[in-house]
Amino acid sequence: MIARVVDQDGNAKRREREAIMTDDRYVPGLENVIASETNISYLDVEAEQIVLRGYDLIELARSVSYVEVAGLLLNGSLPDGKGRDLLEEQLSAASAIPDAIYDILAHVPAGTHRMDALRTAISALAGFDGELEDHSAEANGRKAIRLLAKVPGLVVNGHRILSGQPVIETRGDLSFAGNFLFMLTAKVPEPLEERIFDQSLIAYSEHELPNSTFAARVIASTMSDMYGAVAGAVSSLKGYLHGGANEAVMAMLGEAATPGELEAVMLGKLARKERIMGFGHRVYMRKPDPRALLMKEALARLAEAKGRQDLYEMCDAGEAVMKREKGLYPNLDYYAAPVYALLGIPVPLFTPVFLAARTAGLCAHVSEQHAGNRLFRPRVSYTGPRGLRLS
Ligand SMILES: CC(=O)SCCNC(=O)CCNC(=O)[C@H](O)C(C)(C)COP(=O)(O)OP(=O)(O)OC[C@H]1O[C@@H](n2cnc3c(N)ncnc32)[C@H](O)[C@@H]1OP(=O)(O)O
Ligand SMILES: O=C([O-])CC(=O)C(=O)O
User: Which residues does the entry assign to the active site, renumbered to this chain (predicted)?
Assistant: First the structure.
């Protein structure tokens, strides 16, 4: 089918599109459909590489900090040492959260899912940003820093308020990752713990066009604001087919204590045609997720340091079961979950931590969408009736 584009205003771009051939094939889940142009990231599945603004994510995770990766995502280039220190300072300076946000969180039911609480908090924070409706690249860059700075506090203190605990203050003497882990565990982390947590934040920082990023871009494409777009992404990420899987992995691992028991749990689920959380991926599917390998390595180091090789061995055995039974590889969530458990992060905060890390990528996408916007408005393949009459 030729796209029917009416060229009433003589717009050259419209004429260009008129010439583009499309077909009317419906692709469920938009699998493999190219829905956006971006210079932020790309999953090069063949090369088994996640490209972030030209760099390999795994190489970044081995050599630089999350804050440097956030700078790369938001500004387009890796900051040097001075730039990194400046960004750390800016994030620390912007981390204070208005008391009114905590008051709102104090009024939501204690059982509220922590992603719902986080979405509420991000949504309410919009009203405090004086540049909310300025969608210029410069204003979006400043908003991204303000939001990224506050999300760790919203994640941790949202949970603490709902759990009846006092809020915990940020520690200006720690790095972004060190302070975040300190707040999550109420304990200054050991260097190995901080490094591994930092790597996990890089692993989660950005991943091309997953459901949540697509949701954020769709929202931003109406020229709605950054907070609204990120709040939409929170809803998307909560689902267990996406970010919610890291918590679901932990629930599954909690059902077993030995490799044999985990195998039995997995086989039981497969026999009942249930999905095994932390396995499979829309883009990688039959290839390894490079981030899962990174987190598996991190789990090995952490398990050794904490005398929990049993946990590593059980997870490794679970991976072998899925390879044998379904030919499926683990995704990032499968190994991030036990890493977070060993770091002492409360399970209900696993997915909120994912969102906190992804805030850098999401804000970069919102800015990019605003800068070169075209409204998302696809069509449907209608399957309902027609021609019904009222009488
Ligand atoms: C950081 C992230 O967000 S990564 C994703 C986190 N999510 C999870 O870990 C949840 C578990 N995984 C899944 O449910 C899926 O692999 C998804 C949602 C991630 C991707 O799913 P899709 O691209 O829609 O794959 P689809 O559903 O078509 O699956 C293809 C086949 O693999 C099977 N499959 C895929 N994942 C799994 C799984 N985790 N457990 C069991 N079988 C699976 C499907 O049953 C299907 O088998 P079939 O062809 O015999 O019917
Ligand atoms: O890419 C996806 O579909 C999901 C994912 O791994 C991520 O968002 O990190």
Answer: 281, 333
333 touches ligand 1 (CB under 6 Å): yes
Contact 124, 100 (CB under 8 A): yes
Whether the predicted pLDDT of 49 surpasses 60: yes
| Residue 25 domain-assigned (yes or no) | no
**280 close to ligand 1 (CB < 6 Angstrom):** yes
Q: What integer is the mean pLDDT of 106-115?
A: 98
Q: What is the pLDDT of residue 24?
A: 72
For residue 16, report the distance from its CA to the centre of ligand 2, in Å. Answer: 33
> Domain boundary at 210, 238, 266, which?
238
Spatial distance between the Cα atoms of 237 and 204, rounded to a whole number of angstroms: 12
The total number of structural domains that make up the chain: 2
Domain with 337, as residue range(s), is 245-343
Quote the pTM value.
Answer: 0.95
Residue 5 resides in a domain: no
The three-state secondary structure class of 363 is: helix
User: Which pLDDT belongs to residue 1?
Assistant: 37
